[in-house]
Amino acid sequence: MSVLVTGAAGFVGSHVSLALKKRGDGVVGIDNFNNYYDPSLKKARKNLLNQNSIFIVDGDINDSKLLVKLFDIARFTHVMHLAAQAGVRYAMENPGSYIHSNIAGLVTLLEVCKNSNPQPAIVWASSSSVYGLNEKVPFSESDRTDQPASLYAATKKAGEEITHTYNHIYGLSITGLRFFTVYGPWGRPDMAYFSFTRNILQGKPITVYRGKNRVDLARDFTYIDDVVKGCIGSLDTSGKSTGSGGKKRGPAPYRIFNLGNTSPVTVPMMVAMLEKHLKVKAKKNFVVMPGNGDVPFTHANISSARKEFGYKPTTDLQTGLKKFVKWYLSYYGYDQGKL
Fold first, then answer.
1. Which member of 63, 269, 279, 287 has the greatest number of CB atoms within 10 A?
2. Residues known to be catalytic
3. Using an 8 Å Cβ cutoff, are 51 and 17 in contact?
4. How far is residue 66 from each of residues 50, 107, 170, measured CA to CA in Å?
């Protein structure tokens, strides 16, 4: 297959691009290298991709002329849409960036896909955050998703509605993936496990949020290699889009899957694992969770993805964090004695 990967210099995007290339698929990436987190990490991922003969275009998914040009050159059979403004709390500082990337950018991309001949099949990153204030666990794809707790979650939920429309009207094959707290080497510095690692090594205190009544927060941490397998399984089973020239010729697949690990771990347990692998004790400040968009727990039911494409996560948090710490120490030069 020939795949356009958006957000290819991002955490999940870079890993998916490498995995596709490794098995012989054609891959072109696009990324706008924004500074929501350290752009030098994105540049380092880009260099890794370039070393593996993957070309990344420096551009924005809102640039429809650029997207049309890419489709003219490459005739993509599939699009793996992973470009997004991530992060739950940052939405309170910069709401516009979420609308720009997660809604406007998505529509721009869908418009280009809809008009392209042949239409590609699309797999894109939704989020476990769409479950919002849902209290029924584990979260299943058929559960309510109409109570988002953050603007980020609301834009991902909007994305699910928008993609449904494009599937219904234009015959685009679309698969949405609800990722559950993806972590691992080359990860995102704004994620707790990453910033905790940085602060523990620098001897700085870490802030551990607690829910109401001193209940520990828990997350269904999912290792990057498992998520990549889910992304590729989704691409391989996506079916075909049915439209041409912007017109639908018949019904096309519309699917949504949870990609999680199914074993939620509390944040203090995650911190204890990091302390073990870093061989350093953390200075912890426990704080009651402010109402800034975080939810108290996440837990995925993955039976749909297992049935549809054999999705089966194999890495537990202890093993995955060990791999992350090894990468972190190497990437930031700790294993050369530099602090």
1. 63
2. 152
3. no
4. 20, 15, 22
Report the number of distinct structural domains present in the chain. Answer: 1
Indicate whether 293 belongs to any domain.
Answer: no
| Cα gap 228→234, rounded to integer Å | 10
Q: What is the mean pLDDT of residues 2-14?
A: 98
Task: Give residue 251's domain range.
Answer: 2-183+222-260+299-314
Residue matched to tokens 């998916």: 16
Is it the case that residue 299 has pLDDT exceeding 60?
Answer: yes
- The answer to whether residues 163 and 150 touch, using CB atoms and an 8 Å cutoff, is no
Q: How far is CA 131 from CA 32, 76, 77, 247, 313, in A?
A: 28, 32, 31, 33, 21
For residue 282, what are its two tokens?
A: 């953390």
Say yes or no to pLDDT of 131 above 60. yes
Mean pLDDT rounded to a whole number for the chain: 95
- Amino acid making up residue 20: L
Give the residue-averaged pLDDT of 174-192. Answer: 97
> For 70-95, what is the mean pLDDT?
94
